[in-house]
Design a protein that fits this description.
369 residues; alpha/beta; Spore Coat Polysaccharide Biosynthesis Protein SpsA, Chain A; Serine Threonine Protein Phosphatase 5, Tetratricopeptide repeat; 3 domains; six-stranded mixed beta sheet; two-stranded parallel ribbon; 15 helices; 8 strands; 46% helix; 13% strand; globular; disordered C terminus
């Protein structure tokens, strides 16, 4: 095994610690190599430098503050050995809530409906695959976009997909990802900007025509509706939803959100009310229904109860907490209430940094039109 360490312009004693470890470690079957960027150039630069120096047949990445589990190599390696046509295999990971004094662990998990055959459609909705838990053949070396300050994993996946690489995933968590104040993925406004840039740089419409022949039509149209919604093409998103079954959760949620962003609150209320009737514990629909009721000057006492219920179901849900605090303040301002624009992950990656306000989304929509 070859271990490549990249010092990305650190100003602490990381390199000294690494050198001492290498000097004091007697592992005949492991070779260590240490490279250095003179200045901090970012995680993508460090990964690219490491890949340019590697000589092995397979590779994976290990963040400096993450923990690799004992079967981090053996499980994906055996998977690639059994599936010779697969280029890259991702695994699940554990989230280590190490910020705000918390020391808790949770498995991040993949959507129950996600399979190796429809991963691309799920990736269009949001990124589920991180480079920190990939394991790949040497032939899958592809540079990370150093001009992106975040969402680089999202871009790397699509670059490989359009290149024709076959990408699979396995459910086992093989690493522990530490959540703390310095995670780059927490810088939401910049991440949102980069996601828009990435989604606009690939010809997804061409892929739609190819997938239409052998994909579930509802699943395909839902995923592409989310794509158009994210880049601000709301009319096109609504068109994609026309053939989707009316009882589909994503259809109701997206329609409700688009109506709310347009100020069509009565139509939005009907969409979110329908979800709440069928899924009374869906926290983001409870929140959005409350916002729409308040914006339309209807039943503030019911909106208050909805926000309280949403926060009771998920104490980490910041949109609901913000809205409840605003509603209970003596100088409440309905203009700063927050819509949740997409259904939440089952496990929030960063509970203190995932909010996108409706103003952000409206600004993105204007910029893309």
């Amino acid at each position: 095994m070859e271990v490549i360490l990249v010092n990305d312009g650190s100003t602490d004693k990381s390199e000294l610690v690494a050198r001492e470890y290498i000097e004091n470690t007697n592992c005949p079957n492991i070779s260590f190599h240490l490279f250095k960027n003179k200045i901090n150039s970012g995680i993508s630069s460090a990964k690219n430098l490491g890949m340019s120096k590697m000589r092995g047949e397979y590779f994976f990445f290990a963040g400096s503050d993450d923990i690799q589990f004992p079967d981090r190599i053996s499980l994906p390696l055996s998977y690639l050995a059994r599936n010779e046509e697969v280029d890259i295999v991702y695994s699940d990971c554990e989230l280590w809530h190490n910020s705000n004094g918390r020391n808790e662990f949770s498995t991040r998990g993949f959507p129950p409906s996600m399979t190796n055959e429809n991963t691309f459609l799920h990736q269009l909705k949001r990124s589920y695959l991180w480079s920190g838990v990939l394991f790949a053949r040497r032939s899958a070396q592809l540079k990370f976009a150093e001009e992106l300050s975040s969402a680089v994993d999202y871009d790397w996946y699509f670059r490989h997909y359009f290149k024709g690489s076959l990408i699979h995933f396995i459910d086992s968590p093989l690493a522990r990802y530490r959540l703390h104040e310095k995670n780059t993925s927490k810088k939401l406004s910049k991440s949102t900007e980069n996601v828009l840039k990435i989604l606009k740089s690939y010809d997804f419409e061409l892929i739609y025509d190819k997938l239409f022949e052998h994909s579930n039509t509802d699943e395909l149209n839902i995923s592409f509706a989310w794509y158009y919604f994210t880049i601000g093409k709301h009319e096109t998103a609504l068109e994609k939803l026309t053939t989707v079954a009316d009882d589909n959760f994503d259809k109701k949620f997206m329609r409700g959100t688009i109506f709310a962003l347009r100020g069509e609150y009565l139509r939005a209320i009907r969409s979110f009310q329908s979800i709440c009737n069928n899924c009374p514990k869906n926290t983001e629909s409870l929140n959005n229904l409350a916002v729409c009721l308040l914006k339309s000057q209807k039943t503030p006492h019911i909106a208050l109860k909805l926000l309280q219920k949403s926060l009771n179901l998920n104490p980490d849900y910041l949109d609901a907490r913000h809205n409840l605090e605003e509603l209970e303040s003596t100088k409440s301002n309905l203009d700063v209430l927050k819509l949740t624009l997409k259904p939440l992950r089952s496990e929030l990656t960063h509970v203190d940094g995932y909010i996108t306000t409706s103003k952000d989304m409206l600004d993105n929509s204007k910029n893309s039109s």
